[in-house]
Write a structure and sequence with these properties.
Number of strands: 12
Mean pLDDT: 93
Low-confidence stretches: none
CATH architecture of the largest domain: 3-Layer(aba) Sandwich
Oligomer: single chain
Number of helices: 10
CATH topology of the largest domain: Aminopeptidase
Strand content: 25-35%
Number of domains: 2
Structural class: alpha+beta
Distance between the termini: 33 Å
CATH class of the largest domain: Alpha Beta
Shape: globular
Order of helices and strands: EHHEEEHEHEHHHEHEEEHEHE
């Protein structure tokens, strides 16, 4: 382990309700943009699992300079619920990189997870983070998700409010008006991969209430139910659809995206699932997120765990 923290060069504090604003300060320094004021407060408030604020911030002279945290949730394995956590934000201030902070904060977080009886960690790292997780922290990659990209053929004007803030409220009102007739009465949908016989993230009512911080919406198109998020793209989180209804659902979804000025629809899926097969028969895909695991206790088997876009913390 690097000695920077243990030698007193940096100080480390566990994430809590009082220092979440420091995560926002570090985010601004790393990405040169502001997060919504309550974004991190909502993201790391996972009290519904019995474990919350599961991560650490490193400081140098009271300046937040590194952060690592995981997001507790439950993995449904057959009829059992396993307290697990997703590896989430990893940030290091540009002036303090290559000092071993990521590894030290991660190891400290893993021990906290064990203390909280979290048995399993999973994550979807980018290519920059992957070598550190595998080579320095002992994670195991079990597969790679595929991303299906569907072009809507419509005009792109979704980005205009981002470039011209004066249009933001106008576009928001327009979007809400368009979506009104699509919003589903139900507030959640079942995890599609569980219906395929795989283990998966348990998405009960409390989980969906927690995930509302990311403003994803449950919509109905015909007999199909979708969990979607709107940004510069339309990101499908998960879908409940009968195979015979799939083409009609995609056709109507493309029309909806076109009305909202969104040129692309994306969906990430693990090979072997029904939805992956339905998309693969119609659309090309590109490799997207590696799927990785770290077992903290017990003899858990991870090969039967599958994911969709909805399980990635950015959804």
């Amino acid at each position: 382990m690097n000695s920077n923290i243990s030698s007193g060069l940096y100080t480390v504090k566990r994430l809590n309700a009082g220092n979440l604003t420091d995560v926002g300060r570090l985010y601004n320094a790393v990405y040169d943009k502001q997060a919504d004021p309550d974004f991190f407060a909502k993201k790391y408030d996972t009290a519904f699992t019995g474990a919350e604020y599961t991560g650490f911030i490193a400081y140098s002279d009271q300046l937040p300079i590194a952060f690592y945290a995981v997001i507790p949730c439950f993995i449904k394995c057959g009829n059992k619920l396993i307290l697990s956590a997703q590896s989430a934000d990893t940030m290091t201030h540009p002036d303090h990189r290559n000092n071993g902070l990521f590894v030290e904060l991660a190891l400290t977080t893993f021990q906290l997870c064990r203390d909280l009886n979290i048995q399993l960690l999973f994550g979807f790292p980018n290519q920059n983070s992957l070598p550190g997780f595998v080579n320095k922290l002992g994670w195991r990659v079990t597969g790679i998700m595929d991303c299906f990209i569907i072009h809507t053929g419509g005009l792109s004007f979704k980005r205009i409010p981002d470039k011209f803030p004066g249009f933001k409220n106008l576009y928001s009102s327009y979007q809400n008006r368009i979506l009104k007739k699509y919003l589903a009465k139900e507030s959640r949908i079942d995890n599609s991969v569980f219906k395929d016989g795989f283990d998966c993230v348990d998405r009960d009512e409390l989980y969906f209430k927690y995930k509302s911080y990311n403003d994803a919406k449950v919509i109905k198109i015909g007999a199909s139910t979708l969990w979607v998020k709107f940004s510069s793209i339309l990101l499908i989180g998960d879908v409940s659809v009968q195979p015979d209804d799939f083409d009609d659902m995609i056709y109507e979804l493309k029309k909806l995206a076109g009305k909202l000025g969104i040129k692309q629809i994306h969906f990430h899926a693990c090979p072997g699932t029904t939805l992956h097969s339905l998309f693969a028969m119609r659309f090309n895909s590109i490799p997207s997120f590696p799927v990785m695991f770290k077992v903290l206790s017990g003899n858990l088997q991870t090969d039967n765990i599958k994911f969709t876009s909805a399980d990635i913390d950015t959804f």
